[in-house]
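User: structure tokens for this one?
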Amino acid sequence: MSTLPALPLASRQDGSYPRPQMMRTAWADLDGTWSFRHDDADAGLTAGFTTGLPEAQDITVPYPPESAASGIAEPGFHRVVWYARTITADDLAAAGRSEAAPLVLLHFGAVDYRALVWIDGRFVGEHEGGHTPFTFDVTALVAGGSEHVLVVRAEDDPHDLTQPRGKQDWHEDAHAIWYQRTTGIWQTVWLEAVPATSIAHVQWLPAGPTAVDLAVRLRGRAAPGTRVRVALRFDERHEDLAAIDVDAPAGATVLHVTVPVTRQRNGQAEDELTWSPERPRLVDATVALHDAGGRTVDAVSSYLGIRSVGVARGSFLLNGRPYDVRSVLNQGYWPDSHLAAPSRDALRREVELIKELGFTACRIHQKIEDPRFLFWADRLGLLVWGETPGAYEFSATAVQRLTREWMEAVDRDASHPSIVTWVPFNESWGIQHVADDPAQQAYSRALTDLTRALDPTRPVISNDGWEQQNSDIITVHDYEGDGEALARTYADEQARDRLLTGMGPAGRRILVADAPDRGQPVMLTEFGGITFQPADRRDDGWGYTAADDAQDWIARITALYDGIRASSFLTGSCYTQLTDTMQETNGLLTADREPKAPIEQIRQAVRGH
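Assistant:
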């Protein structure tokens, strides 16, 4: 059998590769200057925009046209927009097109909300869902000629309440807790060339303390004699951990492999390899396809973290032991680029800042974050709560759309060790009457159980904040501004009983539909929200409470955390929020990621020492 080809170490990449857990050696980045135009009359399909854009402006992809970073900076209502870019021979060469890799794949990280794509006027395909990736095989469309015109039509109706949209405002101007919209392309567009039979997706899930489960999805079908070889390596010690060969059944499109990590059989040494925020150790992996003659057909590099998460006896467990989740709410929104990060380095810096502030976790709020953020969370050690962007309406269409997009998100991100919890609903968004409506109750229960079916290895929160049914963790949102009052609400088991059998802090029941208290862990997953504007004050700036100055602000944060620390049953918390975001001036950092007080003082308030 031929040896595995030299591939980059996935765990030691620089964060630029758009799909960090499945790397090849060649790819072509299509971000940069594109042509762009609004189509408010929705006339582009009949006016011939599919072959090129007349009277177009320049836009910088992947920044949304509402943002300043895009060069367009038009935040108003524009339901339909168009993009165009030339694919050159250099792009195809950079993608690695060759006799061994003849298929050319066009990847989109995310386009909000519905995308239709053409090359040279020929229809390529479409995708619905504004936060998840999609791919088209464009081999036949770029087979001849040295240049090809790529055109994208994006449709994002701000008044369609069935679209999963998260924090994007339906008003023309941002108000309350909602922000300016993100329309169209907002994550990387890229080309990749692959063999005719190739690896399309890999997914790692823990299989007990001494093994990992791998699902390999193929593009094309396995020919007779196809074999998959998996190798694991711990690079910190240059230690080979596992190598296994598995025969693929002829015609198979998915292969499941359990890879034993025999080193972990020594229970006295298993902590040396497990992943945690304190020791974020990653295992490098290579997955290769070999034909019946033993030749390497395709190979990708990946990585995984060996760790377990769960709940038991009122505790959240990381690697089998109780772990205090100290989290911060992160909107993932930047003033000049909106949902798109201003740079790839900014994604790493976001993780670093969260850790420097004293947190062990973050809750990405109402957003499916760029996978390169998750890479840095994996590598630097940060727990992440994966949450779907909510729709605002309950209807058959809304159910279908959100369920489909959520399934795509779980499929994309399940391999990241940093993600420790799934959150399919937040504060009854899209299920506003779940307390009393049996249909909405069924939907909430079903999507929670569906999430468990897709990934049985992580806890699932059925409806973060209140009105929960089959939740693995009971979560509460409480913006009480008095630390002593907070301490009384969460003091002891009697307080816990009052909380779960009465009305919650927001006037909503915590458990509904006769859901029993099964002794789950209880977390305060939104609190704080103290507005403080040290400079450049906004007239519309607000939070849930307000501080007069930096000293008052730190004292208020400390008092709230002291109230939480006094609780006998809270097992985690999530402070609102990491940064100021538009009119919400309740961040620990400004919108430009500058701390509002010395970072050591914030850290001490958060950690208590």
